[in-house]
Amino acid sequence: MSEPSAQALQLQRRPTISDSFRTWKLKLGLEISIFLSHHHQIGFIAHSHRLRIRGVRRRMVNSETPRKRVAFVLIDGLGDVSIPRFGYKTPLEAAKVPNLDAIASAGVNGLMDPVEVGLGCGSDTAHLSLLGYDPRVYYRGRGAFESMGAGLAMAPGDIAFKSNFATFDEKTGVVTSRRADRHFEEEGPILCAALDKMKLPSYPEYEVRVRYATEHRCGVVVKGPKLSGNISGTDPLKDNRLLLEAKPLDNTEEAKHTANVVNELSKEISKILVAHPLNKKRATEGKNIANIVLLRGCGIRIEVPAFEKNHGLRPCMVAPTKIIAGLGLSLGIDILEALGATGDYRTLLTSKATAIANALSAPVRTCPNIFVPGEDEHKPGVSDGYDFGFLHIKAIDDAGHDKATVFKVKGLEAVDKAIGQLARLLWEAESAGPFQFFLCVTGDHSTPVEYGDHSFEPVPFTLCRLKDYVGAVGGESVVLQTSLDTFPLPTVEAGDDLSDYVAAEEEISQAGRAFSGDSVWRLDEIAAARGSLGRFPGSEMMGIIKKFIQLEL
């Protein structure tokens, strides 16, 4: 890293959280430690008495108060375990991520269990927990999230499914491949159009809506009377298993009736797909045919207090992954348009970063348009901007599921580059407008490449003021030199080896030191354990963020 500029040195001379720690220790001769209270507050304790650090106070609200806004970056599947080929480092430890390290060096850190200790959770339940909604209370299946994110409007009483185009042996009843094709971007919308508004012969009073999501996925919504979300699905969850029948999960007449409706839906979908010319073409080309849609995660639209009402922050989100977008919509979060952003390896991270930066910087910059389920056209976003910008990045989770060890390292480096772009755009806005920005980075769960699935390991969490990040990264001149050019996610060639790379990173890690905040100077699973936030459940995350941005140092 280059020598600190004059701007960086000026920032270094400003009081920091660490300075406050040292001041109190010298003044009182007492051991001060930061703690999390049961009310999700950050405080300081000396023996048994709570103390308020000199120079840290709640900012009084007045006309000159900067607008405090948070850029929240969630790296899906961020956490991992030690990899022997990387010298028993995790992919995050092995990666060269100077911007993520600067955020950790500039702020407060900890390890977070997205829901609870020892629970390997899905992205949907984890996101609910992190955003302050207990999944044990509010979770009603992921089908509604997937379908709303795909663009299907849902009303109370509708049911929805998270669905896969799959390959089914009609003679044996066996699902030979749960994913007909991971690259289904051209054909998926065609088949969805053929299924949309299909009729059920025995149940003509029901309306069926189908919309393409991503890869092999689609959203399916059923509208009509006396439907229940309390049924099982048809997805066997593994290849080469029998297609399942939907079953009621309680003894109500609604659940029994809904299971019958869904079983007929499954059969009628298969009839339409088998006869579709696109599948005949795929068969002649030797490709898997998509002759069934697996229906799972039956759910209803959840009814919850809006995010803004709960937290006092106007939220927006960039989330091309449909299930995350649908979850956001369910919480009253606006979904921003970001051209070229996808929920897979083809995504343009710069587009995502720019959309969040513009939304947080409005009205200095023009706010992006927002997505509305059930409508073909996007609508203008909030003209004076948002307070909480949620940037979701999916590709790292995909790397874990695909057991793509080297790609996860290189993918994290690409994410780091995009975060540098986000920081530059926000710093330009903070320098020119009435803003004070904060950067927060974490994950929703671990997806270790050795496992190929979600696990219960905690994830690192880091939070800082943007101006402290600027100092930690080397000063304003370094930030403003960050290129804003778009870039693709990296490719990995057969035989790529990162052994030299990991050794060089080891030398860097030995020379690091914290810029401000706590004693952590890197973002990884091991370093975060030394952070001042300790280990905490995801349900406390929003409380930590809200308390942190209220502090004035």
Automatic annotation (TrEMBL):
<feature type="domain" description="Metalloenzyme">
    <location>
        <begin position="68"/>
        <end position="332"/>
    </location>
</feature>
<dbReference type="GO" id="GO:0006096">
    <property type="term" value="P:glycolytic process"/>
</dbReference>
<dbReference type="GO" id="GO:0046872">
    <property type="term" value="F:metal ion binding"/>
</dbReference>
<feature type="domain" description="Metalloenzyme">
    <location>
        <begin position="385"/>
        <end position="464"/>
    </location>
</feature>
<keyword id="KW-0324">Glycolysis</keyword>
<protein>
    <submittedName>
        <fullName>Putative cofactor-independent phosphoglycerate mutase</fullName>
    </submittedName>
</protein>
<dbReference type="Pfam" id="PF10143">
    <property type="entry name" value="PhosphMutase"/>
</dbReference>
<dbReference type="Pfam" id="PF01676">
    <property type="entry name" value="Metalloenzyme"/>
</dbReference>
<dbReference type="InterPro" id="IPR006124">
    <property type="entry name" value="Metalloenzyme"/>
</dbReference>
<dbReference type="InterPro" id="IPR017850">
    <property type="entry name" value="Alkaline_phosphatase_core_sf"/>
</dbReference>
<dbReference type="InterPro" id="IPR004456">
    <property type="entry name" value="Pglycerate_mutase_ApgM"/>
</dbReference>
<dbReference type="GO" id="GO:0004619">
    <property type="term" value="F:phosphoglycerate mutase activity"/>
</dbReference>
<comment type="similarity">
    <text>Belongs to the BPG-independent phosphoglycerate mutase family. A-PGAM subfamily.</text>
</comment>
<comment type="pathway">
    <text>Carbohydrate degradation.</text>
</comment>
<comment type="function">
    <text>Catalyzes the interconversion of 2-phosphoglycerate and 3-phosphoglycerate.</text>
</comment>
